[in-house]
Amino acid sequence: MPLTLLDRLERRFGWLAVPHVTITLIVGQAVLYFVGYMGANGILPGGASIDRVFLVPSLVMEGQVWRLATFVFQPPGMIPIFAVFYFSLLYTFGTALETQWGTFKYNLFLLIGYVANVAAAFLGWYVLQQQIGPEGNEMLKLAAIPASNVFLYSSIFLAFARLYPDFIIRLFFVLPIRIQWLALMMWILFAYVLLRGDWMIRMLVLATVLNYILFFGREHIREWKQGHRRRSFQSAAKRAVSPAKHACAVCGLSSAESPRTLFRYCSKCSGQRCYCPDHIRDHEHVVDKEPVV
Questions:
Q1: Helix (H, G, I), strand (E, B) or coil at 113
Q2: pLDDT (tens digit per residue) in 41-50
């Protein structure tokens, strides 16, 4: 069996894969969440802030390059109980993908998503710069528009939903719902954001979608082709087994082959004998012989 590109990459770079990388991401986010929460509530002295970990392209260009790495640990902005729920789901999704794909493929999925999101953040920032113009560059720097890592982790959710569409999530800890419907809602939200969002968010959504397509696009195309062939076969089989509603007794032309043809029945022929327009007046009448008594 020929090796795929992924197999060749794994043979060469598989030793670089980091096992249980999801746990590392969760621990980093949880620590920063705790620091940010304690600082926001005045528990830590000086009001500790986690703003310096966000990916802000304008600040990276000024030399704060650590943001390229630390933004993956940006914690979710939600109350503690929902943060715990978020971390538990991220652990479930990430470990399931690593188990299903293997460590190397899962690492590659995250790496491509990371690179795509970073590139999208800078591209979106560049487009915003062009829209504002030179006179607005200082205003853009002051705004310090951050690029959220939400879209990077959304790709993990979409990949999990693709592989386990019947997985049940209890929304608000009560309402059971299949994850495939939540994924559909996310795709709809992505479409809306592409139409109405700013360029930063648009680029991040495109990065997430392209990463998903890279890993699942071939499967979707194959399923679409299989579905198209199945529907074509079912349609042909239905036409083959279903009798034609009208069929010319001379040439055999049927209403299935020519649905617009006006078929007529001959009143001089015995029984219900149907003819096409070409043979309704040009055929030999068929009359059943009366039985001899």
A1: helix
A2: 666 665 557 7
Q: Does position 137 have pLDDT exceeding 60, yes or no?
A: no
Q: How far apart are CA 209 and CA 198, in angstroms?
A: 17
Counts of helices then strands in the chain (DSSP H, E): 10, 4
- Residue written as token pair 């998503």: 113
Instruction: Please give the C-alpha separations between residue 167 and each of 96, 160, 161, 170, 286, in angstroms, as whole numbers.
Output: 11, 9, 8, 10, 67
Is 65 within 8 Å of 45 (Cβ atoms)?
no
The helix (run of H) or strand (run of E) holding residue 274 is strand 274-275
For the CA atoms of 160, 120, 115, 206, what is the dihedral angle to 10 degrees? 30
CA distance 185 to 205: 14
Q: Where would I find the beta strands (DSSP E) of 160-226?
A: 168-171, 175-178
- pLDDT tens by residue, 219-266: 888 888 887 777 777 776 666 555 557 788 888 888 777 777 788 888
Instruction: For residue 147, list its beta bridge partners.
Output: 55
- Distance CA(105)–CA(96), nearest Å, equals 12
Please state the φ and ψ torsions of residue 176, each to the nearest 5 degrees.
-80, 135
Task: Give the pLDDT of residue 140.
Answer: 52
Report whether 57 contacts 147 (CB < 8 A): yes
pTM of the model: 0.73
Q: Report how far Cα 209 is from the mean position of its chain's Cα atoms.
A: 7
**Distance between CA atoms of residues 193 and 120, nearest Å:** 15
Domain-wise residue ranges, the chain:
5-226, 244-288
* Lookup: tokens for 65: 């390059």
Helices (H), the chain: 5-13, 21-40, 57-61, 67-70, 80-101, 103-132, 137-143, 150-163, 179-196, 199-241
Helices 80-101 and 21-40, packing angle to 10 deg: 170
Say if residues 270 and 286 touch (Cβ distance below 8 Å). yes
What is the C-alpha R_g of the chain? 32
